[in-house]
Amino acid sequence: MMHMLNLEATLFCGQTFAWKKNGPLYQAVIQDRFIQFNEADFSELVVNDAFLFHYFDMDWEYTKAESTLCMRDEHLKTCIERYRSLHILNQDPWEVLVGFLLSQNNNIKRIRQLYERLSVQYGRSSEAGFFSLPRPEALESVDETALRSLGLGFRAPYLLDAIQQHRILWALPALPYEQALSALMQIKGVGPKVAACILLFGYHRMEAFPMDTWMQKVMQDRYPGKDSSYFAPYAGLAQQYLFHAERNQGGHV
């Protein structure tokens, strides 16, 4: 039996900035492909489409992972029960890198706006007025002034450096986790948190445990003296449940 997933939590928990919801329709351009569906059609769609089956991570051990994490402690169990079946998407690493460079000192609504502006300006036109996020090759002649005119501000130099160094992404699957983190942090603007996000959402590295201000608060309040190893081997999934619950409920779950 296929493990079902929570579309709202999965698509709007902050791991991707590509999706919109228009009425009952979920819409995005993912890797140059326009995707649109409503919740009622999702199961049939994902079973019959290998790309989406992989993208939505339908064959990973979520039932086992959730069961294991629920036994760790009561707070994590409550978060999982509230948002059960949140999946970690298998995203294109470049799309994750760009999204999280744009996320620096930003809120999710504005990150989506910048992501969309970049796509409209330099991406390929798709159906329904949607545009794909431009590949690094399409951005090689772009300068800082052009990026700042889109509202990127201090993030513009970060993106320019990522365009120049995007080949770093190719080597990461073969590297041990700490080496992969270090490689990513060669890109301007990529610190430990953004690097961990890229490894979790772009490479499904479940040992990744991104630490932003939300998660620092969770760890201080709920898990003093503990680190990501407490949630092993499913630290990345635990982080998303804790982060999503904290951001939506202020931790009062």
How does this model look, in words?
- The chain has 253 residues and is mainly α.
- It has 14 helices and three strands.
- The protein has helices at residues 7-11, 39-47, 50-55, 62-70, 74-82, 93-102, 108-122, 144-149, 156-165, 168-171, 177-184, 192-203, 213-222, 235-249, and strands at residues 20-22, 25-30, 33-38.
- Strand 1 (20-22) and strand 2 (25-30) form a beta hairpin.
- It is globular and about 50 Å long.
- The model has no long low-confidence stretch (mean pLDDT 95).
Quickly describe the structure.
With 253 residues, this protein is mainly alpha-helical. It is built from 14 helices and 3 strands.
